[in-house]
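Folded chain entry
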Amino acid sequence: IAIAIETREKLLPSLILLNKELKKKIKEFNKIIKIGRTHYQDATPLTLGDEFGAFQSQIRNGYIRIEKALEEILYLAQGGTAVGTGLNSSREFSIGFIKALESIMGIEFKNSKNFFESLSSHEPILNFSGAVNTLVSCCYKISNDIRLLSSGPRCGINEIVLPHNEPGSSIMPGKVNPTQCEALSQVCIFLQGLH
């Protein structure tokens, strides 16, 4: 129940917002021509919008994976007492509980298809964690791509200039680090560890 609530109220809306912002960047960067790379070596030209289109596609596909994994999470074993036999419970209780929960939460929970399995294993949660971890890996890749493309300004690639949100360094005045990418990377690594 907690996974469904947090996913519906926080994760999915955040992904919708990120997807929307990336679509704006695709349009904004559509005419900026740059070089593409394979193995860090110059390849064919593309637009910065094309690169951000790849990021947007990754986020959209991550959203779809999470939605699909969430479907399994919505099956509850309420009423599957005594190792799944349903002893001292009733089908009416299970159905009533699911209906009450749906009216309170606004989420369409369902009765477990097999109480024995639902009570003895956690594959739906593991599958969901895998979908989230896939999204996290995607975000880590995007962060690293942007960090690499913004490296410089004189001795790096320097194709993207990130906003100066935290200019300065204790030993190198005027230096600006891509702290947005660093923060995202640290969150991604933390979440990968949780998975």
Remarks:
- Helices lie at 2-28, 48-73, 81-84, 91-105, 115-120, 123-149, 179-194.
- The mean pLDDT is 94.
